[in-house]
Amino acid sequence: MQIEIITKEDLNEFKKELLEEVRKLLSSGTILQSEYLKSWEVCKLLKISPGILQTLRKTRKLPYKKIGGSIFYSKIDIGQMLKL
């Protein structure tokens, strides 16, 4: 097993690279949340009630991510569910 030592300089360089990538994403107009919808947006898009959306979650027909207290749905997952 080979041990690799990471220095403060390595971490600072990584931080600079990461921040630069985030800046590029934000400046290009790509918003990370644009790929995901909140519950109310899904209800409006699919013209369903919050109760139906909850049933889709519980039956695992529509995958979701819970971040903090908010639930997000991938636009790709919604599209795949509609194709079934």
UniProtKB/TrEMBL annotation:
It holds the Pfam family HTH_17. It comes from the Bacteria. Residues 40-78 form the Helix-turn-helix domain. InterPro entries: HTH_17. This is Helix-turn-helix domain-containing protein. The lineage of its organism: Bacteria, Pseudomonadati, Bacteroidota, Sphingobacteriia, Sphingobacteriales.
